[in-house]
Model the fold of this input.
Amino acid sequence: MAPSQNNPIGVIDSGVGGISVLKCIRAHLPHENLIYVADSKFAPYGEKANEEITRRVLTAFDFLNKQEVKSVVVACNTATAASIQIVRDKFNYPIIGMEPAVKPASLMSKNKVVGVLATSGTLLSAKFSALLEHHGNDIHFITQPCFGLVELVEQGDLESSALTALLKKYIDPLLKEDIDTLVLGCTHYSFIKPAIQKLMPDHIKIVETGDAVANYLNHVLIEKHLLNENTALGTTDFWTNSLDQNAGNVIAKLWGGDPKSFNYKGLWI
Ligand code: DGL
Done:
């Protein structure tokens, strides 16, 4: 059955990182009903095999399909690299993925030295290699896998000394190479942008993808005649499978948005 305009949009991630993208979607599309699914019990995806990530992604899609979504945003660079083609081949509604903002960064960089922070899964993927090949010809890209950051953000830690020490370990080598642009290639890292900025000189530009993805989703919905024409504010439902008692508080803290549109639903699986 073809999806209808009033149906919700699903947004998935390995955990809470995709909420950074959800916020951009909410800002671009105030009238849409959004369903966020965090697979936190299985986070991080960053060092898992593609087959395992794909199994998890398909489980989240199963859940969303029962809610008759009209579109899904895979708000996770790692999951996109591992499984976007598989889900696009399987389901016949628009599926939007994420990839590190290599192209905009290559256009923005003046000295042509760009750092990329992402998970090892994203950096080692064929999709990422292809991205560098297409857009990175005259650019020196320095890629840095950031083990351990996703776990801290999952706990709601956006500024502890442990987080700062880990970030310093990852950012210092990039500073030594004189980067003037830094790509945040994992949706979790958007939440620690202030902590990252504190460790870098002001002239270094940070590039993220959430806004571009929300803008693209808007265009796709218009093109496919799927935009919700309601004038009321849309609902935002949050589902997790984290057994941590604090999970709801972490989600509320990261969402930080209008409480009128915040609806914590609890466990999805
Ligand atoms: N938010 C995911 C991404 O964008 C995090 C991946 C992970 O769970 O390791 O890559």
Remarks:
- The mean pLDDT is 96.
- The radius of gyration is 18 Å.
- The pocket of D-glutamic acid is lined by residues 13-15, 17, 43-46, 76-78, 119, 122, 150, 186-188 (CB under 6 Å).
- The domain at 9-98+211-267 is CATH 3.40.50.1860 (Rossmann fold).
